[in-house]
Amino acid sequence: MDGTIVVGFDDTPQSAAAAHWAAGEARRRGVPLDILQAWPWHEPHVLGSYDAVQWARQRLAGRLVELRAEFPGVEVDAAQLPEDAADALEAAGRTAVMLVLGSRGLGAVRGFLVGSVSHRVLGRAACPVVLVRTDDADSAATSAAREVVLALDPHRPGDRVTAFAFESAALRSAPLRAVHAWDPPAGSEYMAFAALGSLDAELEAAARRGLAEALEPWRKRYPQVRVETRTPRGPAPVAVVEAAAGAGLVVVGRHTRRSPVGPHLGAVTRAVVHHVQGPVAVVPCG
């Protein structure tokens, strides 16, 4: 497998968790790990004295030593760059296998905080971006046997997204759960009960058919992966978040679409990023 895994590190607990998860993933994939620490301390308005830079460099070196000791089979390197963190990570992502970032939990109701750097990287990165939770003691080992959940729209399947999910399941020897939610069209609630029941049955059958057809080529390519499908009725963001409970990894797609206020992740991806407890992989579709 070519390329490296790049993890953003700023000495926060969430970035430490991300680095640990990334090292385990690098070992699983047989690729090197690069720890990237970046902030524009060369700019006059940025607080970054010589002592602060040296302290950050020491913390980065300490993390490098720890990961090399814990993952002796993984080639681990580190770099400190005087650049904007999002720009540096985006540049690294052009040649990386994946980027790994940490995200902080805000509680069951409020979800997870995705900072400005993570949000910019999620919307712009050319490779998959994995968000790791601070309290996810995953280490890429304890979650290895837990299933991989794939949010898939058969009408816009995205080969890169499906390939990443199947590959991740195969590397973990874990089952794959593919989820596609469906909802009756607006206004159907005014139909007669018998007609509505018939429509629901038709829509559910069509959802199952479409999902099976989208997965068939990948089942053949990865016959060792046990696949389960779910086609719940209801809003897709809610259905996918519920289906992802307890998963070792959740995989969602990102269609490149810009809005006046920045990258648009889509309702399902946004819900998963903010409300799923475990690691989340956001994969660019095109």
UniProtKB/TrEMBL annotation:
InterPro entries: Rossmann-like_a/b/a_fold (IPR014729), Universal_stress_UspA (IPR006015), UspA (IPR006016). Residues 4-133, 146-284 form the UspA domain. SUPFAM superfamilies: Adenine nucleotide alpha hydrolases-like. Belongs to the universal stress protein A family. PANTHER family: STRESS RESPONSE PROTEIN NHAX, UNIVERSAL STRESS PROTEIN UP12. This is Universal stress protein.
